[in-house]
Write a structure and sequence with these properties.
- It is a single chain.
- It is built from ten helices and ten strands.
- The chain is α/β, with parallel strands linked by helices.
- β6, α5 and β7 form a beta-alpha-beta unit.
- It is about 40% helix and about 15% strand.
- The chain folds into two domains: about 220 residues, Phosphoenolpyruvate-binding domains (TIM Barrel); about 45 residues, no CATH class.
- α2 crosses α3.
- The protein has an eight-stranded parallel barrel, surrounded by five helices. It has a two-stranded antiparallel ribbon with strand order 1-2.
């Protein structure tokens, strides 16, 4: 556990720092998962994960669940539009307890943030919100030319000062060769095993998604449990209605009565 000061000048302990991640590149595997509630963050920490990532607006409640994991705050494209929005959002997320920010924005935006010494995770490969520009939801780097263009983007991201990159839906062999040739800590989301950090969404790992992406694997079945809870809730409500109308509910256990003498006195007072 490392001692740090947060961006709010508060002493804290972290399982990892940016320096640790950079020093361990290509030497050790790490794991990352999304967490957007205190319950999810608590589960990730108790499961022994190394890193969590959440929407920037959720940092405070995520930190309630995990005091020590390395936390990256995602600056969602349509929530942080102007450079001022992005910079203010980044500082606010760090003040609230994030250790880094993630942005899929331009190299200029990354450089703007890193010039303020803000640890930045970029986003390369498939960026779903920008998928129309590449012909839809597909792997990026499927031809030699496209793979080389992707490598050049990694080098530009490195030059812009990013310490890490979310690498989404990139061919595994391409990811492996790029990761060996960049100082950036590579975080694989559907980019195979050859990156530095293995990453999936909480709902995909836990089997809580009706239509998981191809690169996901469910290690649990929370969706089944949710459906069972939904069915049980409906069954309970229907039974309550039925027994209420029939007079079966409330029964003796759910009701009380005045004793006979007190009840008779009550009736006399009514009359």
């Amino acid at each position: 556990m490392k001692n740090i000061y947060t961006w709010a000048a508060v002493p804290a302990k972290r399982t990892l720092t940016v320096g640790d991640l950079k020093a361990a590149k290509s030497k050790k595997k790490f794991t990352q998962v999304t967490a957007n509630s205190n319950e999810e963050a608590d589960a990730a920490e108790n499961a022994g994960f190394d890193m969590i990532i959440c929407q920037a607006k959720n940092v405070l409640k995520v930190r309630e669940g995990s005091k020590h994991l390395f936390l990256t705050a995602s600056l969602i494209l349509n929530q942080y539009v102007t450079n001022e929005d992005i910079l203010r959002g980044a500082f606010k997320a760090l003040e609230n307890g994030a250790d880094a920010v993630m942005t899929p924005r331009s190299m200029d935006v990354v450089e703007m943030l890193t010039k303020e010494d803000i640890p930045v995770m970029g986003h390369l490969g498939l960026v779903p919100r920008k998928s129309t520009s590449v012909g839809g939801m597909r792997a990026i780097g499927k031809t030699s030319n496209e793979a080389f263009e992707l490598f050049q983007k990694f080098k530009r991201l490195e030059d812009a000062g990013a310490f890490s990159a979310e690498c989404e839906v990139i061919p595994e062999n391409v990811m492996g060769e790029i990761s060996k040739r960049t100082n950036i800590v590579t975080v694989s989301l559907g980019a195979g095993r050859n990156a530095d950090v293995m990453y999936l969404f909480m709902e995909d790992i836990c089997g809580d998604s009706e239509n998981p992406p191809r690169h996901a694997k469910a290690f649990g079945n929370i969706l089944k449990l949710r459906n069972e809870i939904k069915a049980e809730r409906i069954r309970a409500l229907k039974t309550f209605k039925k027994e209420s109308i029939s007079g079966k509910f409330p029964g003796k256990k759910q009701s009380s009565n005045l004793d006979k003498k007190q009840f008779e006195e009550f009736l006399n007072q009514l009359d």
